[in-house]
Design a protein that fits this description.
Length: 183
Amino acid sequence: MSASVVTEVVRLTAAVSGVVLLGAAVTKVDAAAGWTGLVARFPVEPRIRRLIVLGVPTAELVVGTAVVLVPRFGLVLCAALLASFTAVLALLLPQLRGADCHCFGAVSSSVVDLHLIARNVALGAVAAGVATLAWTHSDPGSVPVLEFAMVAFGAVLAVIVRTYRALPTLDDVGALTTTEEVR
């Protein structure tokens, strides 16, 4: 694989990982009640729960930023963070099975189950694989602003489309208010 292809694979993976992690951090804070509710089910002391409620979004923010600015190091951190999420979910699966994970706050959610664990394993494997690729070739440097912006724009569009699908259809909107009800 040529150095330029490796650089682009590393940068694109870093941009996507950065957007996902930064988005997860922001949406957890935005929908704190759901995230806090999930953590309340963890069988640990209340002070540890408070640390988790604040620590996970903080870690996602730090790792998401590191992935974009220093992809080699950031992708290693990303793989480690996903491995820790996987380990905690696997350990707590009996207590959390079927609960809403609140991975992306109110924007998108998954149920805590083996599929969520498998998703984290797969994402962690991609991050680890691309990190390995990054360390075996020349330093790709930080993700270019335009590349990051395009990935972020794509993520925003995906959220808009997902939200739009959750809204009533145009036919339903027309049926909400009739001229007779307005009079």
